[in-house]
Amino acid sequence: MSNALIQLLVLAGVAIFLILRLKAVLGSREGFEKPPVQVPDQETAAAPRRGFEVIEGGPDRDIADHVPETSPAFHALAAMKQAEPGFSVAEFLKGAGGAYEMILIAFETGKLDPVKPFLSPEVRDSFEAAVAERAARGLTTEATFLGLRELALQDAEFDPASRLGEVTVRMTGELVTATRDAGGELVDGDPKASRRQRDVWTFARTMGAEDPNWQLVATGE
Question: How far apart are CA 128 and CA 164, in angstroms?
């Protein structure tokens, strides 16, 4: 037997011996094994976590940005959102501002037909009576809306039984009006100067209804 062959057999025997020793120490692993759980040391655990972190259970900012968290209005608005998850206070206020401009100018100029769907029967009748009274006196009004100077949610109520939600909004608009008599003489307002008008309007709607439009149900100052 040559020396080379003897050396090869010796090396093979050493290799088999090492494999058997390693298997005895480590054991064999079969199938899926979960990775070991890494437990952070005290210094790492105490260090503040950086980066983005989602905080759950906080107040709904869409509501809390407009009314106190402890107010009845807050709970009413939260109930409206439960009845209609797509309801947004911010979007409602944006729509209320647009409705205020449209309805106010329609009332000032006596052209109510385009806004009647947004008026409750009581408000519509009141507006129509005022417009008819002005027309009977031969008065006409020109009006231009310049913008909102205040738009704030004042109160909210919700009836779980009827699912009727009511939201009261405080608004201040700046506009130019000029009212003239049948002869064209200026009797009220100023076509060259603006004035501010403050109103408190209440809008109502059945939450969850297919009709997305709110109706003006009450007006005040």
Answer: 26
The answer to whether position 46 is within a domain reads: no
102 falls within a domain = yes
Look up the CATH number of the domain holding residue 98.
Answer: 3.10.450.240
Residue 195 lies in a domain: yes
* 38 found inside a domain: no
Name the domain count of the chain. 1
Domain containing residue 157? 61-220
Helix-strand-coil split of the chain, %, nearest 5: 40, 25, 35
pLDDT for residue 2 is more than 90: no
CA end-to-end distance (rounded Å), the chain: 117
Instruction: Calculate ∠ Cα 199-189-200, nearest 5°.
Output: 0
Confidence of residue 30 (pLDDT cuts 50, 70, 90): very low
pLDDT at 58: 72
d(CA 61, CA 90): 10
- Bridge partners for 157 per DSSP: 166
- Return phi, psi of residue 171, to 5°: -135, 145
